[in-house]
Every structure is written in C-alpha cells, then in structure tokens.
C-alpha cells in the first residue's frame, strides 16, 4: 500500500493479513502517532467510524438480517461476473473502491452507488466493478474475504449491499464469522450456496484477489474515503474522498 496517513480508530481483531504481535513494541511512538493521525483525519474531513468485531453478549440471540428482499429487488436481473455488475458492453465503467467495515462508507454507498445501480446500470448503460479498499493500516478484515468469496458465485454485490444494509447489526453483535454467515444466509434468498462460500473464504485465491485490489489502490494513491474511477470512450476520471452522486454523474457524462 502507498504511504498514506490512515485513521487511528480501527477494527481490533479479525486481522487475517495484519501482524498483530508487532504492535506491542510500538510504545510511546504509537501514542504520538495516534495523536498526529487524529489531527490529520480531522483535516481531511473524513472520519472512519469502525464497526465492533466482538462476538456480542449471550443475550444477543440470533442475528436477524433485514433488507434481503430490497437488495434482491435492486440487483435481481442485472448480470454479474465476479466483481463486475452490469452489461459488459456498457460504454462506461465505474470502478468502486469501498470498505464494508467502514461506517460512513455505508452512507456513501446508499447515496451514490445504489442510485447508479437502479438507473444506468439496470438500463445497460453503465457497469460497476467493486474493489475492496481497506481504510486502515491493519489491512483487510473478514468482511472483505466474505465479499470476495461471494464473487466466486457472482453474488458479491448482493453480499456487499446486504452487509451495508445491516451495519447496525454488526455494531451490536460484532462483525464476526457468525454475522458474516447471517449475511450469507440472507443472500441465500437467491441461488447462493452458503456452504461453498464458507469453503471459498479459506481459498488462497481470495487472498490474491484482495492483494490485487490493494495493489490497484496503491498505484492510484487513493486517500482515505470511498473513491471511483470512471472510464469511457473519452477518457478516465478519478474521484476521491467520497464523491457525491452529482460529481460521479458529471464524470460519466464527460467520458461517455
């Protein structure tokens, strides 16, 4: 990843790609770093509010996932191929860089990505490609592995949208494997094999996919925050730090 300043309030635990043990040696340097990062994040105007990854209390009961019908109504009938959503021959492609376990990223997804899906993507004039973009120095967490595994069955977009819809449950129960399994069962309103998805999460090619996503974000030197890269016959536009729907639509118009 590029040497970019990252927010300090991060998810703790479930770090399959992070070296947790090395943090103990940071001592005073880490404390100073936290203060500096807090100031920088304030200047950037984008605060990452991370989801809890605890396992929840004994009183939490079964995790009740909501919104599966709405997500399927949004995405049903639209062609998917791995991380791509929409007509592969669409004149314009929007690469979406987002993090499932970033709280404000859910709002951005709802305000920007969902209208694109319901409009030009469904109409066949636009295709989207999803990239998992870890917004902390700790790297990818289980949510990214889960979404990438769902892509192997061409349901990454259902998984991501249902995860975003239920972020409040993740805050209560913890974004652990039980929560991810519950999201997968919600995706299961369509032809989604949950057992196969669980096996796929452990495959080495999922790690390779996430590393490829990370390489792309590094090459583009993306700062913290959701971003898009809009490409078409008339060029490419890169929009960073939570671009608005109007800004993305303007970029689409410029490149088509």
Structure description:
- With 256 residues, this protein is of the alpha+beta class.
- The protein has 10 helices and 6 strands; from the N terminus they run ααβββαβααααααββα.
- It has one domain: 3-Layer(aba) Sandwich (Glutaredoxin).
- 46% of the residues lie in helices and 11% in strands.
- The chain has a 6-stranded mixed sheet with strand order 1-2-4-3-5-6, sandwiched between helices.
- Helix 2 crosses helix 5 (156-165) and helix 4 packs antiparallel against helix 5 (156-165).
- The longest helix is centred in the middle third of the chain and has 21 residues, at 103-123.
Describe the structure in brief.
The protein is 46% helix and 11% strand. The protein has helices at residues 27-44, 68-75, 103-123, 142-151, 156-165, 167-173, 177-187, 194-200, 204-219, 245-255; strands spanning 80-81, 84-85, 92-98, 126-132, 227-232, 235-239. The chain has a six-stranded mixed beta sheet, sandwiched between helices.
